[in-house]
Amino acid sequence: MTEATVKIRIRDLHRAFGTKVVLDGVDLDVEAGSSTVIIGGSGSGKSVFLKHVIGLLTPDRGSVEVDGVTVHQLRGTDLTRFRRKFGMAFQEGALFDSMTVADNVAFPLRRLGSIGRDEVDDRVRECLALVHLDGVGDKMPAELSGGMRRRVGFARAIAHRPEILLFDEPTTGLDPVTKASIDELIIDFRESLQSTLVIISHDMGSVFRTADKVAMLYEGRIIVHATPRELLTLEDPRISEFLRRDLETWATPP
Ligand SMILES: Nc1ncnc2c1ncn2[C@@H]1O[C@H](COP(=O)(O)OP(=O)(O)O)[C@@H](O)[C@H]1O
Ligand SMILES: [Mg+2]
Q: What does the DSSP 8-state code read for residue 211?
């Protein structure tokens, strides 16, 4: 990978909570315009990792650089401007129940304040179309299915045209068909928005649908950084164990 194509560079990232070491020297390069999926067991530090990328948590040691800028050194308006590079979608969509779908999507745009009212309306329509939810702007979140709410969360995350999209377990709790359609949507953002994607997943089906590269977090470090195909050929018991558990989850009816 040449210098120019690295969007996110993580070096020797350490983070503990009290005596509990969560990140113990994470190294990872994320290529601009690519899709990187982070896998790892429950509690392995995936969400903590993501929060360091966006500057919500500060490392004990090491660094995250985005476009060559060290995240934990940013303060005040620089940090605010930096965060605008990102769109983040959470597991449950985290919508405001008392606002219409359109107002939910418009919320971050209105807060930015730099975009006129007509343009906000256009942008909301455009983003709802991108997530295949044309015409639902006037509905309330409670009127939508789980998969649709997840899509509204995505529309909100992309409304300010972020360069980097972060997804923390975006398909957890959805049925397999909805999962696949959400995965398809996510991977489309790579083309339609020219965004760099970082996705946390513990579902191998999703990994194969969405990843250019997979990185596995294990005992505080990235132990593999490979394509999904390469992952299957590696004879590492830590990986086989993870894949085996995932297959068991698939085999267990909900
Ligand atoms: N703010 C916090 N304070 C204390 N411990 C935390 C905090 N955030 C995460 N942890 C701990 O860090 C570990 C990794 O958490 P997390 O990144 O959420 O795991 P996951 O891989 O499931 O996303 C867990 O043991 C969790 O309890
Ligand atoms: Mg998590």
A: -
